[in-house]
């Protein structure tokens, strides 16, 4: 400093200036910490040498990651969840996409009320849906199990698929389809080569949403699963006598798989834009 | 599935008494038209005149309420658009955003099962000078480039008729001029019938062999740019193409090959061949550049006053008030005969009978004026 007589700003003044300049960063950091503490906790405790109960840190081990199926029935539950997730996603996506096209493209009697009814399952409390589905299955003398879970999941996923895909269809320029017809594509070819590829990002997004909803669902599943176990149900049930560290391993693994998918997607789409 | 049957015979495009109604609204009203094979034809009119609807009916994107459309001897009125050998350049190009430029152009060829897609696409790309962009996606291209690709995508199919729906509307003025010349070159090169829909009279006059001026679902007049400009048949055409001075008058005699018209006590002569009506009540018309600031001619108005003057380089444009409630536009070339008048100067106007025309005086004298600047 070569200036001699400039008054030095006081320490508290400088601190408050630094604080106000960095307020947005501090806020963002706090928000992220809040969001990711549960994930970090889950991840860290997946390395806990837990034994029976995974509530207190007992020491570091890789054993849980080397043997994720070590706890009784955990992998059976995960496999069930994956199977139910995939089957429900496929069915809900196909049915929901068809409904979305019907609602987005055609004018028919009762279209407005259909639009409204589609929203209802999203607005209904899950407990109510779960209980009434169970009542229905029992009245029909269907034993709850794998397929009743699938039926329930397809039911509540459809609404989300319809809403997502319909938004994409609404943003589609009708002139593109006219251009395809003008260029010798008949109705089926127009759908296959122009409409479907353009709506596909919406359908893919809807499918991912449906899968995560299905994989995640506990309340409705708990009502309609009978003796079949899913991963959320397994975690809930074992909470009473201590959740095994393998649950943390599987939870963390799911998180990182999702993260990798997102990152790869970003990289690919950025590369595509650069070409 | 590439076995779509496409009609292959060539010939003139004929519209016979075609109408299109939307509820009570009549978009196209009993329109008949013949577009000769291989010509560059323009449908010109203000927005809402039915020109785009006409185009869409030819493309097969709309079905006429009445009438028939045919190419050569084939009736295509109800034929699906993908069976017609007609292609369209859409207003905002409608390129497929998920396909590369190459695949966009190849689209029609692949649907028809053409064997040598690659070389066809390449020659189309060369025709529009865009070969270096084959692997790009449409959203990576500028408006002018997309425009050329849209033309290439249509032309690669060698349609019998190419439809262009305001293809230059989204481009800036300089690029538009350039593309006008370009499109004209392409049309001459491929020899396909072009039907160009536009509201821009200058664009139509620059490019088309034949122009049909449309207004309220009907064709007002059809002919070459010169015909329409020099001898308009209605007040709408006179005002819509360029500027025009119209004077309300009455035919007092038709003798030999000329008619005499009186207006406000003055008499004017007009060749009978340039009288477009059997009515005696007429609008007498003359273009601004045909007026001279002199008083020796057969048709003249004396004691006029200059009310405005603007210098536009090649000419000076005067607004001149006649002794009655009428303003006339006069263009004077900036050469040695220049008068260099000031606002307030008294002048006489004169013009030759052969530059005069007489139109039916029943309609609106201002029809079609100030309609072409919709952007």
Automatic annotation (TrEMBL), chain A:
Keyword list, A-Z: Cell membrane, Membrane, Transmembrane, Transmembrane helix, Transport
Domain ABC transmembrane type-1, chain residue ranges per copy: 78-268
Spans traversing the lipid bilayer: 26-47, 82-104, 116-140, 146-169, 190-215, 249-268
Gene Ontology CC: one annotated term: plasma membrane
Xref: SUPFAM superfamilies: MetI-like
Tagged with keyword Transmembrane helix: yes
Keyword Membrane listed: yes
Coarse class of the protein's main subcellular location: membrane
GO biological process, one term: transmembrane transport
UniProt-listed InterPro entries: Bact_Polyamine_Transport (IPR051789), MetI-like (IPR000515), MetI-like_sf (IPR035906)
Pfam families in alphabetical order: BPD_transp_1
Subcellular location: Cell membrane
Its membrane topology: Multi-pass membrane protein
Family classification: Belongs to the binding-protein-dependent transport system permease family. CysTW subfamily.
Protein name (Swiss-Prot/TrEMBL): Unannotated protein
Automatic annotation (TrEMBL), chain B:
Database matches in PROSITE patterns: ABC_TRANSPORTER_1, ABC_TRANSPORTER_2
Domain ABC transporter intervals: 13-241
SUPFAM superfamilies, sorted: MOP-like, P-loop containing nucleoside triphosphate hydrolases
Keyword ATP-binding: yes
Gene3D superfamilies noted in UniProt: 2.40.50.100, Nucleic acid-binding proteins, P-loop containing nucleotide triphosphate hydrolases
Keyword terms of this UniProt record: ATP-binding, Cell membrane, Membrane, Nucleotide-binding, Translocase, Transport
InterPro entries for the chain: AAA+_ATPase, ABC_SmlMolc_Importer, ABC_transporter-like_ATP-bd, ABC_transporter-like_CS, Mo/tungstate-bd_C_term_dom, NA-bd_OB-fold, P-loop_NTPase, PotA-like
GO terms for cellular component: ATP-binding cassette (ABC) transporter complex
Any one GO molecular-function label of the UniProt entry: ABC-type polyamine transporter activity
PANTHER family: SPERMIDINE/PUTRESCINE IMPORT ATP-BINDING PROTEIN POTA, SPERMIDINE_PUTRESCINE IMPORT ATP-BINDING PROTEIN POTA
Alphabetical list of NCBIfam families matching this protein: potA (TIGR01187)
Protein name (database record): Unannotated protein
Organism in which the protein naturally occurs: freshwater metagenome
Taxonomic classification: unclassified sequences, metagenomes, ecological metagenomes
């Amino acid at each position: 400093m070569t200036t001699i007589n400039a008054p030095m700003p006081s320490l508290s003044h400088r601190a408050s200036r630094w604080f106000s300049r960095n307020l947005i960063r501090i806020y963002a950091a706090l928000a992220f910490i809040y969001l990711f503490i549960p994930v970090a906790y889950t991840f860290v405790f997946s390395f806990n040498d837990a034994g029976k109960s995974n509530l207190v840190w007992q020491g570091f081990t890789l054993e849980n990651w080397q043997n994720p199926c070590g706890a009784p029935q955990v992998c059976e539950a995960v496999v069930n969840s994956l199977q139910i997730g995939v089957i429900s996603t496929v069915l809900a996506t196909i049915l929901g996409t068809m409904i979305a096209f019907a609602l987005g493209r055609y004018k028919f009697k009762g279209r407005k009320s259909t639009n409204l009814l589609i929203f209802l399952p999203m607005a209904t409390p899950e407990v109510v849906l779960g209980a009434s589905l169970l009542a229905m299955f029992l009245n029909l003398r269907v034993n709850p199990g794998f397929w009743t879970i699938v039926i329930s999941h397809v039911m509540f996923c459809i609404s989300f698929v319809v809403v997502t895909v319909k938004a994409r269809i609404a943003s589609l320029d009708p002139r593109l389809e006219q251009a395809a017809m003008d260029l010798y594509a008949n109705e089926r070819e127009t759908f296959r080569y122009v409409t479907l590829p353009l709506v596909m990002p919406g359908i893919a997004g809807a499918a991912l949403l449906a899968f995560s909803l299905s994989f995640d669902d506990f309340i409705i599943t708990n009502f309609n699963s009978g003796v079949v176990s899913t991963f959320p149900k397994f975690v809930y049930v074992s909470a009473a006598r201590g959740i095994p560290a393998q649950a943390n391993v599987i939870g963390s693994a799911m998180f990182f798989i999702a993260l990798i998918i997102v990152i790869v997607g970003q990289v690919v789409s950025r590369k595509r834009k650069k070409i | 599935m590439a076995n779509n049957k496409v009609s292959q015979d060539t010939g003139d495009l004929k519209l016979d008494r075609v109408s299109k109604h939307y509820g009570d609204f009549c978009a196209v009203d009993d329109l008949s038209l013949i577009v000769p094979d291989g010509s560059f034809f323009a449908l010109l009119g203000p927005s809402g005149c039915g020109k785009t609807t006409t185009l869409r009916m030819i493309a097969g994107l709309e079905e006429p309420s009445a009438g028939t459309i045919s190419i050569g001897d084939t009736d295509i009125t109800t034929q699906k658009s993908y069976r017609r050998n007609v292609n369209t350049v859409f207003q905002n190009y409608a390129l497929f955003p998920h396909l590369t430029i190459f695949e966009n152009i190849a689209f029609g060829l692949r649907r028809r099962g053409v064997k040598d897609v690659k070389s066809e696409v390449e020659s189309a790309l060369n025709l529009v000078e865009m070969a270096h962009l084959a692997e790009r996606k449409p959203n990576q291209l500028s408006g002018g480039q997309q425009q050329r690709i849209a033309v290439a995508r249509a032309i690669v199919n060698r349609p019998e008729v190419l439809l262009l729906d305001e293809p230059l509307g989204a481009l800036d003025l300089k690029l538009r001029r350039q593309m006008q010349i370009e499109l004209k070159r392409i049309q001459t090169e491929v020899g396909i019938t072009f039907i160009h829909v536009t509201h821009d009279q200058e664009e139509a006059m620059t490019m088309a062999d034949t122009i049909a001026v449309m207004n309220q679902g009907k064709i007002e007049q059809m002919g070459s740019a010169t015909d329409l400009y020099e001898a308009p048949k209605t007040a709408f055409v006179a005002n819509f193409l360029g500027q025009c001075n119209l004077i309300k008058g009455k035919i007092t005699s038709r003798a030999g090959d000329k008619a005499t018209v009186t207006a406000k006590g003055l008499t004017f002569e007009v060749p009978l061949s340039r009288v477009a009506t059997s009515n005696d009540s007429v609008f007498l018309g003359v273009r601004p550049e045909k007026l001279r600031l002199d008083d020796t001619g057969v048709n003249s108005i004396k004691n006029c006053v200059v009310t405005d003057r603007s210098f536009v380089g090649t000419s000076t444009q005067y607004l001149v008030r006649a002794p009655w409630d009428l303003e006339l536009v006069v263009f004077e070339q900036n050469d040695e005969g220049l008068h260099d008048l000031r606002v307030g100067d008294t002048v006489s106007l004169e013009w030759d009978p052969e530059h005069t025309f007489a139109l039916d005086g029943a309609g609106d004298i201002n029809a079609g004026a100030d309609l072409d600047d919709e952007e």
